[in-house]
Amino acid sequence: MQPCRKSLWLALSASWLLLILLGICPLFRLAVPPKPPPGHPQGWPHWLDAAFLSSFSQPGEPPEDAPQLPQAPRGSSCSWGTCFDTSKCRGNGLKVFVLPLASPTSEAPQRILASLETSGYHTPNTSEACLLLFLPSLDQRGVCQPLPPHWSAGKNHLVLSLHPALCTHRGQVMVAEASPSADIFRPGFDVALPLLPEDHPLQGGAPGQLQQHSPHSGAVWLAVAEERGGWRIAGIQDSACPWDEHCDLHPRPQQTQLGEMLPNATFCLIPGHRPATSHFLQALQAGCIPVLLSPRWELPFSEVIDWTKAAIIADERLPQQVLAALREMLPGRILTLRQQTQFLWNAYFSSVEKVIHTTLEIIQDRIWGASAHSSLLWNSPPGALLALPTFSMSPQDFPFYFLQQGSHPESRFSALIWVGALGQPPLKLIQAVAGSRHCAQILILWSSEKPLPDRWPKTTVPLTVIEGHRKASDRFFPYSTISTSAILSLDAHSTLSTSEVDFAFVVWQSFPERIVGFLTWNHSWDEARGGWSYSAKMANEFSMVLTTAAFYHRYYHTLFTHSLPKALRTLVDETPTCVDVLMNFLVAAVTKLPPIKVPCGRKHPEPAPLAPGGPGLGSETQPLGQDCINRMVAEFGHMPLVSSRVRLDPVLFKDPVSVQRKKYRSLEKP
Amino acid sequence: MCASVKYNIRGPALIPRMKTKHRIYYITLFSIVLLGLIATGMFQFWPHSIESSGDWSVEKRSVRDVPVVRLPAESPIPERGDLSCRMHTCFDVYRCGFNPKNKIKVYIYSLKKYVDDAGVPVSNTISREYNELLTAISDSDYYTDDINRACLFVPSIDVLNQNTVRIKETAQALAQLSRWDRGTNHLLFNMLPGGPPDYNTALDVPRDRALLAGGGFSTWTYRQGYDVSIPVYSPLSAEVALPEKAPGARRYFLLSSQMSVHPEFREELEALQAKHGESVLVLDKCTNLSEGMLSVRRRCYQHQVFDYPQLLQEATFCVVLRGTRLGQAVLSDVLQAGCVPVVIADSYILPFSEVLDWKRASVVVPEEKMSDVYSILRSIPQRQIEEMQRQARWFWEAYFQSIKAIALATLQIINDRIYPYAAISYEEWNDPPAVKWASVSNPLFLPLIPPQSQGFTAIVLTYDRVESLFRVITEVSKVPSLSKLLVVWNNQNKNPPEESLWPKIRVPLKVVRTAENKLSNRFFPYDEIETEAVLAIDDDIIMLTSDELQFGYEVWREFPDRLVGYPGRLHLWDHEMNKWKYESEWTNEVSMVLTGAAFYHKYFNYLYTYKMPGDIKNWVDAHMNCEDIAMNFLVANVTGKAVIKVTPRKKFKCPECTAIDGLSLDQTHMVERSECINKFASVFGTMPLKVVEHRADPVLYKDDFPEKLKSFPNIGSL
Questions:
Q1: For residue B646, what is the DSSP state?
Q2: Catalytic: which of A49, A199, A580, A655?
Q3: How many CB contacts within 8 angstroms connect chain A with chain B?
Q4: Of A644, B120, B285, B524, which residue is the least packed, with the fewest Cβ within 10 Å?
Q5: Which family does the UniProt entry place this protein in (chain A) (predicted)?
Q6: Which of A335, A591, A598 sits opposite B447 (nearest CB)?
Q7: Any idea which of A12-16, B270-274, B588-592 has the lowest mean pLDDT?
Q8: Rg, Å, chain B Cα set
Q9: DSSP sequence for B180-241
Q10: Is A248 an active-site residue?
């Protein structure tokens, strides 16, 4: 029995031990005053009488019966509402008078003046102007120019200095200067300009240097701007702050001086409170994401450009965090930031002309108020200089924003048939086009010397006749009678089948920002002549689509008429054969993409001349007006055309299947 | 010993053998132990309720019982607000340290009642709105109760309405806060600033470097990038539920509903009404209201009485004039009603103007242009007005409707300044949910044609068909633009052939061995991929000519944001079954390309591996099918664009083409593929695939032109 009892005792004590172990914890918990468990903050108390608390404002309070009269602007603070008189700008929009230059010694203001004079803003008449532009400069002795006579406290004056302002006039005058200090900058009134290098091109300008969307696998991760100019490369593993001299005592071998070269890096770190050089623009052009540390200057055009989409602005006091954030940045974000730098560079910064036009466009937007460019138009391709708010206030109406708006191009088109000088009514063509189920209307642009025919063929769609002025540029006038986004531009001599029209239109719906057409030309650099030339020969590539049979968006008529320099429109009126080239230049400059070619069924007959002496299409001869392409390149500042090697055919085009299965049969007839 | 243990295990069997004395003793002992165990068990569950009831007693207190703090008359007063303050000069960002979630931590001082030397309270302890505001912060992710970890401090001293506080004493109360330090990183909320006679546009309480979230800033008092402009909360928001009204033309074109308007402004408004008649309505407060009617909720025009704010829904545009203060609560009412505010208050900083695009929801008219208001508004197209109405209502819903919304938006703005690289984008702030849902932001939006010199990387997924694999490698290596070949060896049980056995090709060939036989291995973003263009190719695709592959690469260069592939497929809506159906017949349309042979941007590999919605990736791996359909869905969804099918139809060796193996197998395959489409469409919540009727051919394909002069002559040969 004895061993039995012993074991019982053992079991009992074991049970007691268990009991104590289990029991002691809660007992402890009871003994210690209750404390919130960690990770569950106590928070703001829930007051018992919360419901009975009184409101912060009682009805009838404050006494509102004695409001103040408008306050006069105090000190140097000016805002758009108080210091700019928009009444002068009504009707004409923004008209700019450039105050005469006192000392025509320096060249730069002269060039700016010349570029302004060709733009639509300029007026030679002070009384007509709503903005007086003053280009300050230093005379030989380095003294600021005296203020011009019209000054009158500077109301409606804009002082535009592309370099950090030396002669600061504030007060009621608007100041557009390079990288202004954030302390004196008046948001919504002044305009911040980029700091341009001395040799910045006036027109055109170099395109962005990004050739691919994602960073090259061999690209440097981080480049740091040097104070004297140039860039230094920092490795990804550098844990020490790479911009601080003190923590970088042992320069690594891979850190080399890049000199003036533009950086091929993913991030470009720009320390310093004041921009000493044009590092910022260099990075932008190179597609290197600018990382600005506590800039004390206003970013260029910050009123309209959303810089968070293209640059990183961070606090210099948190270097580790900034570096860590850069390292951990998701590839998708890097992709978007890089692409945005390129878009912004190309749209607003690549030339002096663009910088000035952007400045004026910002002021114009302020005048327009509610009908100004929306943020979407400023911050997505092709940019606000190419998306005119006069065309429409709804982004869906433009050919560029369907994706962002989640909308689709409409499924109808308007056919615009140009009847040239000796033209006959294109009866067959009208029937073919009207046969398309997508056709909404037919417009005849009658530019023939012959009288208008009395009768037109009966069609299922409305037919309207517009009398033209026998000018080539008439073809691209934004006629108010055009009711659809899509235009099928035709020449009376074109021969198209309904099936061709249908297919081309369906393709256009996938590419609403491009020209979709049948006959193509290709451009090339002619070594022998030292210039550009173009040819209508059959080739493996093309860069232009003839507008004698092409689909494109109605918006290009508005751009053609209202945004192209007058000189170019005069050029095509004088040389009508150039009109196709000009339209292709315009669309390519906007989209940066080649046009789309679709197949034409039977071999087109000897192509119709646009005007007497027009180019022979498909013939061996070179199209006439070879010179106009070079004049356009000069006017655009660069060659915008892009070549393509692709033709879009129907899915079953010439496939060995039964013709019965094919939707666009007639395209295959030999 | 051993036996007793056994007995012990048997338990009660032991008891009858013992003596009675012992039995009683043992039974008592066991009962005590049992009781003890039960009690312990009870304790284990009890304590929670005991604790929470303890919490209850701690939290549920009355505002009247908060501790009283006596402020000596000579206690220090902070400096007046420093107008030159910016985040980089007056804000101590070090306190925000590094936080992996990029979120600031906010501490709230506990509530005290401040009295002066004479025992007279400094202010009302707390207003209902300020209590709501602090509760909202406390319930948010920003809150911390650890003062040492906090980056932003919110005093519980209520300064929402300057008229309810004694300025000097409140300032003294602020200065004695434990972490005041000249107000650094302290945030004050104020909606009604200034007091008679001159009504300053910012809080008059000296606050040194403290940030001010103020309603009614003017350009002269607002420290751009430092202060936050907030709305003046309208208590009507909570009282009256105005259901959203569809945008469109309304009964009144322009409405003025404010009660106290400066006589000069009223004159101008009445002149407008006289000129434009019915479409303009200028209301005033009611003077002849009968008993029991709330004057705040009524407006009058001559003898007509209108319900406010319901009336606002009858107007397209509503005037928001400045009164004694720039910020007006009526702005909130107007937005709630979906009426477009016409803000006439020179130099007023609109609420949250740092992030909200007010051009989309309001019209700002300078005071001196007031007489032109009507013509300015009439010049706005109807479509734009409707857009503004929608936007106005959305601003109210997101940022105005409650004190909580105002508090969280304010903290988000400050958070975005401190962690700018994690900031919320313009679209997230401004786009209404419907637009956010419908819009597509293509990750490769920049129009550019990558240089040909870059070339492409071919990725061959293989299991064990070595012979066929080697043939594919040899064929693909003939393509001029190939820059690297990557073989993904998906067989874990078998080693790839020895190096010497592989075909000798002119470009680097790399073999990657995978850990598991998964289809998603084909779309992994391998470090070895150095080019942007990727050619995914199966180990049995030997029928593509070098010309065809090279041309495919050229097409990809022109359309780098799309899937460019050879065999095309289509999805169709099956009206009988009411679901999607997979189609591989010779159709006139294409909506997918098979990734057995397709070019695409390498970024889509990253997206497939890390950003595929829902469980699609695992589902595909588990079913060993449809990885290509998943890729088609992914790319179409993210770019909003259709695929490009290249070159004419060829006889491809693929499961659904080998009808020889038996019709039933073919049918099972088609059913499975259809299932995939339906599954993916439900996960994506939409059908992203786009149907097109075109394919890409070389410019001179089948044209009457000498073959030898064509760039890509060998295309479409069977």
A1: B
A2: A580
A3: 422
A4: B120
A5: Belongs to the glycosyltransferase 47 family.
A6: A591
A7: A12-16
A8: 37
A9: -GGGTTBEEEESB---TTT--SS--S--TT-EEEESS-BTTT--TTTSEE-----THHHH--
A10: no
Residues in B closer than 8 angstroms to A316, CB to CB, are: 88
Q: Which residue of B has its CA nearest to A591?
A: B447
Question: Which is more confident, B523 or B662?
Answer: B523
Contact B63 A56 (CB under 8 A): no
Q: Which of B445, B691, B700 is the best substitution to test chain A (most A C-beta atoms within 10 A)?
A: B445
Nearest Cα residue to A348 out of A312, A306, A316, A385: A385
Min Cα–Cα distance to chain A from B23, Å: 12
Look at residue B295 in the predicted model and tell me its pLDDT: 75
Cβ-Cβ contacts under 8 Å, A329 against chain B? 421
Identify which of B54, B224, B380 has the shortest CB distance to residue A371: B380
Backbone angles phi, psi at A598, to 5 degrees: -120, 160
Closest CA to A136 of A95, A115, A114, A108: A108
pLDDT at B682 over 80: yes
Would you report the helix, strand and coil content of chain B in percent, each value rounded to 5? 40, 15, 45
**Dist CA B205 CA A251 (whole Å):** 52
Amino acid found at B635: V
What's residue A612's pLDDT? Answer: 35
Tens digits of residue pLDDT in A262-316: 678 899 998 877 776 688 998 999 999 999 988 888 899 999 999 999 999 888 8
Q: Residues A476, A373: contact at Cβ < 8 Å?
A: no
Chain B residue with minimum CA distance to A408: B640
The H or E element spanning position A429 is helix A427-434
Whole-angstrom distance between the N-terminal and C-terminal Cα of chain A?
A: 116
Q: Say which range, A62-66, A425-429, A563-567, B210-214, has the weakest mean pLDDT.
A: A62-66
pLDDT-derived band of residue A214, with 50, 70 and 90 as boundaries?
confident
Distance from CA of A578 to the nearest CA of B (A): 24
Which residues of A are less than 8 Å from B363 in CB distance? 369-370
pLDDT value for A92: 67
- Residue from B494, B544, B172, B201 nearest B349 by CA: B201
For residue B692, the chain A residues in CB contact (below 8 A) are 506-507, 510
Whole-number Å distance between alpha carbons of B670 and B655: 10
Chosen for mutation from A7, A52, A56 (greatest number of chain B CBs closer than 10 Å) is A56
Interface test with A, best of B127, B448, B643, B691 (most A CBs within 10 A): B448
Q: Rounded distance, CA A154 to CA A166, Å?
A: 17
Angle CA B81–B82–B84, to nearest 5: 145
Q: Which of A556, A608, A513, A183 is nearest to B83 (CA)?
A: A183
Residue A352's CB is within 10 A of a number of other CB atoms, namely: 19
Nearest residue of B to residue A18 by CA position?
A: B37
What is d(CA B222, CA B213) in angstroms, rounded to the nearest whole number?
10
Q: Please list, in sequence order, all residues whose beta carbon lies within 8 angstroms of the beta carbon of residue A257, skipping any fewer than 6 positions away.
A: A226, A230, A232
List the single residue in B88, B131, B694 with the smallest CB-CB distance to A651.
B694
Gap from A103 CA to chain B (nearest CA, Å): 37
User: Which residue among B33, B363, B702 places its CB closest to the CB of A370?
Assistant: B363
Tokens representing A16?
């007691």
d(CA A300, CA A281): 10
Q: How confident is the model at residue B686, as a pLDDT? A: 92
Q: Are B558 and A644 in contact (CB under 8 A)?
A: yes
Q: What is the pLDDT of residue B664?
A: 53
Distance in angstroms (rounded) separating the CA atoms of residues B406 and B428: 16
Mean pLDDT within A253-260: 48
Where do runs of H (alpha helix) occur along B1-111?
2-10, 20-59, 87-90
